[in-house]
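Suppose you are handed a protein chain with no further information: no name, no annotation, nothing but its sequence. What can you learn? This example shows the usual starting point.
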Amino acid sequence: MNKTARFLSLAAVAAFASFGAMADEADGSQFALQFDTNRTRAEVAVEASTVAQTRSQEPAGSRVTTYQSTADRSAVRAQAAEAVRTGQIPSGELG
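A reasonable first move is to predict its three-dimensional structure. Written in structure tokens, the prediction is:
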């Protein structure tokens, strides 16, 4: 009985270990993209150089434009208070 249980447990471990043997390459080559192109290396290099010449070195959104307001501070506060009073702007906790 003891030998039979040991044999069955070894057979189960061997069966579970064999599932890993069906895996593909460890580097994930089955997911690699395959490209078929007719362009030459020189054409790609020329295109890459023209893109680099036309691209801006400034990151997108890094330039900040300033805006000079002509509104009076007290007038803006009065408009905000009126909007809260009339319910156009929510105020307090929602329950």
